[in-house]
Design a protein that fits this description.
The protein is mainly alpha-helical. The protein has one domain. Helix content is 77%, strand content 3%. The chain contains 9 helices and 2 strands, in the order βααβααααααα. A two-stranded antiparallel sheet has the order 1-2. The protein is globular and about 50 Å long. The N and C termini lie far apart (42 Å). This is DUF1361 domain-containing protein. Keywords: Membrane, Transmembrane, Transmembrane helix.
């Protein structure tokens, strides 16, 4: 079984380059804010955000690689790469919950830390959305637009569940390999006894709806821009 993947056209490659430049500039801002804070305070309080941004870059890198793949991509390559993408995808919107770390700290204005965390959260969210666009288009080309949107919805709901697992149960993406027993036990417990774990499903549904509405907004803005360019 093979999946046909259309390579980017010249206009699409140009748009991809523009996206990379903007995302690169935005990521650079986050890095500068974190590094300057370390220089200012001599503390590494928010250096962990750089690691979180690196994890958010993984699904974006994987989806970009799939989009740039020429010819016919065999399922034996697509399936493991797609599974790896889904495993790391929650790391992108997860950074939104790093706002939990915001509190007044000596030596740094409160507004500076707010801007720092918001910058990182924004980059995580945009990397996630950009990555999901690639994956949705990949699915839609093969199975149709409706299935593509179904895939995007499920991916965002699963990512919200992953956010809960990471923020509250402190699991990481690689725990599926290093600590599978505990991970699967906690997941099975919440699936089999949902009434006893209302916070799990509250976080999953609320964050899932929020992420889905944000994603739909981004996609709609992109289509409005395409329509405006077509009229010129």
């Amino acid at each position: 079984m093979a999946l046909s993947i259309t390579t980017y056209s010249v206009p699409q490659l140009r748009q991809r380059l523009h996206l990379l430049l903007v995302l690169g500039a935005s990521l650079a801002l986050s890095v500068v804010l974190v590094v300057f804070r370390v220089f200012l305070t001599h503390k590494i309080s928010f250096v962990f955000l750089l690691w979180n941004l690196f994890l958010a870059l993984i699904p974006f890198g994987l989806s970009t690689m799939l989009g740039l793949s020429a010819g016919r991509l065999k399922a034996r390559v697509l399936l493991p790469v797609g599974a790896t993408w889904l495993l790391f995808f929650p790391n992108a919107p997860y950074i939104l919950t790093d706002l939990f770390h915001l509190e007044p700290r000596a030596g740094v204005p409160y507004w500076y830390d707010l801007a720092l965390i918001l910058s990182c959260a924004w980059n995580g969210l945009m990397l996630g959305y950009a990555s999901l666009v690639d994956m949705q288009q990949l699915v839609a080309r093969r199975l149709g637009q409706l299935i593509g949107w179904g895939f995007a919805t499920v991916a965002l709901l699963l990512s919200s569940f992953g956010i809960y697992l990471g923020r509250y149960l402190r699991f990481n993406s690689w725990d599926i390999l290093t600590n599978p027993a505990s991970l699967f036990y906690d997941i099975a417990t919440r699936l089999l006894h949902p009434a006893s774990h209302r916070d799990t499903w509250g976080v999953t549904l609320l964050y899932g709806v929020f992420l889905l509405l944000g994603y739909a907004t981004v996609r709609l803005l992109g289509r409005l821009n395409e329509a405006a360019n077509a009229e010129e």
